[in-house]
């Protein structure tokens, strides 16, 4: 098995050379420490997940694991799957550490670090949970918008809140607020999606006063306040919403971030280029995707794509093309991906291109519980100390980014 020095791995990250830096340990172990742009694919799921996460067989794939033997075994499996440039990182994780390079804990670390950088650079406004609770209790002109997935929202939510997944905010919020004076509070379970959601609305020029709920449902719980469970409140389907205003706002944001809009012909030329990785992703709702979609595009909800980019686009330096028949969801998602250092495009395709239907049969089966890292913001039974430690960790990510210096992020 070929080897590659950590210095050369870092050089590839800095120069945006395509690379998949793959950690083959289980997720719980991965969460204890890894390079910023490492992606976690346990050795037992390589055959299932690689086709969508590393779709080009010629991609430089660098592996490390719990030890050299486990990494080498995973590397041989990848060679058997047809991958042509598989290498082991010299010294593994300890080699990376010994070279003086930074290790990041938790999962989706670079996405969360980016969210913290956005808050620092843009001074994203937020309100503490105690103040939000008082606004709700006195029936102030306020709406609380939860930007997580519907299943997360059903598990626990701020009382009276409404679920609008993150990429849908600019499109759907106008149907929820009574006037331009209505105060909008954006929350997730922790920090990242509420920061990105709040700043999305501000970037798009929504006239309402907009704030993040500081520290999300974690902060709400640590403040001794109760949550609702089993809620299903949402806003009308996208099909019943006027989208022209959202498209104009989102186009302006995407332009400022350097997003390029392409037609079907250009998209085909990108996917035909076998020397580059191009991810084709549909960021509409699951129902819309199931009813009609463009062949070759797979479904990833936009708000989760920005939160979990490493899981859905695992080749750093690759390209991403987003599709959305109403445009605004793809444009807003693309604006964030561009700021995270991705070469990203939005496909301007006619409705006639959305002809396929049903689920995408390429999607790998979901992971089980074995080896999974339990996020401190999941569920309702997390110890307060673990939730506070998680918030403290997130607050330190901006300084870690500075020390690591491989990210290439910018903030518009």
Can you tell me about this structure?
By secondary structure, this protein is an alpha/beta fold. The protein folds into three domains: 1-107, Oxidized Rhodanese, domain 1 (3-Layer(aba) Sandwich), CATH 3.40.250.10; 114-236, Oxidized Rhodanese, domain 1 (3-Layer(aba) Sandwich), CATH 3.40.250; 245-353, 3-Layer(aba) Sandwich (Oxidized Rhodanese, domain 1), CATH 3.40.250.10. Helices cover 40% and strands 14% of the residues. A five-stranded parallel sheet has the order 1-5-4-2-3. The protein is globular and about 65 Å long. The termini are far apart.
Quick overview of this protein structure:
The chain has 412 residues and is of the alpha/beta class.
Could you list some keywords that capture this structure?
19 helices; alpha/beta; Oxidized Rhodanese, domain 1; five-stranded parallel β-sheet; 15 strands; globular; 3 domains
């Amino acid at each position: 098995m070929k080897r590659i020095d950590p210095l050369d791995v870092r050089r590839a990250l800095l120069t945006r050379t395509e690379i998949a830096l793959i950690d083959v340990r289980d997720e719980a172990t991965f969460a204890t420490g890894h390079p910023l742009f490492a992606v976690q694919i346990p050795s037992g799921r390589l055959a299932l997940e690689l086709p969508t996460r590393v779709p080009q067989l010629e991609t430089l794939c660098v592996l490390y694991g719990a030890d050299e033997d486990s990494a080498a075994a995973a590397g041989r499996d990848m060679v058997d799957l047809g991958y042509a440039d598989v290498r082991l990182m010299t010294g593994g994780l300890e080699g990376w550490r010994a070279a003086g390079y930074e290790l990041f804990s938790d999962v989706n670390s670079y996405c969360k670090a980016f969210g913290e950088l956005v808050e620092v650079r843009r001074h994203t406004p937020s309100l503490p949970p105690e103040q939000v609770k008082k606004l709700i209790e006195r029936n102030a002109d306020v709406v609380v918008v939860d930007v997580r997935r519907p299943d997360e929202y059903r598990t626990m939510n701020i009382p009276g809140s409404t679920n609008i997944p993150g990429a849908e905010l600019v499109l759907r919020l106008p149907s929820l607020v009574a006037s331009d004076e209505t105060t909008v509070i954006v929350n997730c379970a922790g920090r990242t999606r509420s920061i990105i959601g709040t700043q999305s609305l501000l970037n798009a020029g929504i006239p309402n006063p907009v704030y993040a709920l500081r520290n999300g449902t974690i902060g709400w719980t640590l403040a001794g306040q109760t949550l609702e469970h089993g809620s299903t409140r949402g806003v009308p389907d996208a099909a019943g919403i006027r989208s022209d205003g959202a498209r104009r706002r989102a186009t302006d944001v995407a332009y400022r971030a350097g997003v390029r809009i392409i037609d079907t012909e250009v998209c085909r030329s990108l996917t035909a280029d076998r020397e580059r990785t191009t991810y084709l992703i549909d960021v509409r709702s699951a129902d819309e995707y199931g009813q009609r979609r463009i062949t070759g595009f797979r479904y990833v909800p936009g708000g989760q794509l920005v939160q979990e980019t490493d899981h859905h686009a695992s080749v750093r330096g690759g390209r991403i093309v987003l599709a959305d028949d109403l445009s605004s969801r793809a444009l807003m998602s693309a604006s964030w991906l561009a700021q995270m250092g991705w070469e990203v495009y939005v496909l301007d395709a006619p409705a006639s291109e959305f002809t396929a239907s049903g689920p995408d049969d390429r999607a790998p089966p979901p992971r089980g519980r074995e080896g999974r890292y339990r996020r401190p913001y999941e569920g309702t039974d997390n110890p307060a100390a673990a939730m506070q430690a998680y918030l403290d960790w997130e607050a330190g990510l901006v300084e870690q980014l500075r020390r690591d210096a491989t990210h290439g992020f910018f903030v518009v």
